Amino acid sequence: MGTESTRMNFPPLMSLGVFLAVLLIVHLFYQGLVLPLSEAAIAAQGAGATVNLWVILKDMEQQIVLSLGVFCLILMGYKYYRIVAKEEPVFTFDYLSHLPKDQPLDVEEAMQTLQSSAHASNSSIATWINCLRRYQNTKNVQHAAEAITDSVESLAAQLESGNSLIRFFIWAIPSIGFVGTVRGIGAALAQAEQAVNGDIAGMVDKLGVAFNSTLVSLVVSIILMYMLHLLNNRQDEMVLKTKINCETHLLTHLHK
């Protein structure tokens, strides 16, 4: 089974294109909406604008975090779509139901049927093909059953590996927030002399950078972790149903 197909990832060039498009869209969103509204809020409310949503989002770290968060959501949404629209509809299919019921299974014909199927890229059919190939080589149903277990374990590992980029970004997002915290605190300390002289506006603004970047990054990270949890559950169901489908239908054909 194809690695990228099994992992349900975008092709590399498409993934890069989506990432660059997300960066551009979020940048335009900041330039056209977030920055003008945050500047207007600061001008109108002064230090009281620190709780304004646009002011909380206005800094560079928050823009990076939101860009990565949107990209991760798109990646997970694509994987979820592949499971729901492409994989789940055929989980319960008996792909060889058209073959004669009262005759021993012609393995070569069965493999050709599966490989030429419109659903040949689906993980379920790929598992059937691996099982039939093992049976063709060994003429042993028990070995074919073991091939099912091996195939679904490989499928589970590939699905998990396919989520590695998402996990990296979920790890990186809080780190970017902490970078903003360090940057903001450092800039606030540089304003200490003005604050001692009574002008605290600069220090308040820089401390806002420190705390807002951490706040936004943690909120985005929590959302992404929850969405990844839902995706992992759906992928686990997919692996389990793939195994059940093979054991229910394919082994029945082999036992004729």
Automatic annotation (TrEMBL):
It is a multi-pass membrane protein. It holds the Pfam family MotA_ExbB. The chain crosses the membrane at residues 12-30, 37-57, 63-81, 168-189, 209-231. Keywords: Cell membrane, Membrane, Protein transport, Transmembrane, Transmembrane helix, Transport. It is found in: Cell membrane; Membrane. Residues 135-241 form the MotA/TolQ/ExbB proton channel domain. One of its GO terms (cellular component) is plasma membrane. InterPro entries: ExbB/TolQ_transport, MotA_ExbB_proton_chnl. Its main location: membrane. GO terms for biological process: protein import. Belongs to the exbB/tolQ family. This is MotA/TolQ/ExbB proton channel family protein. It comes from Alteromonas sediminis.
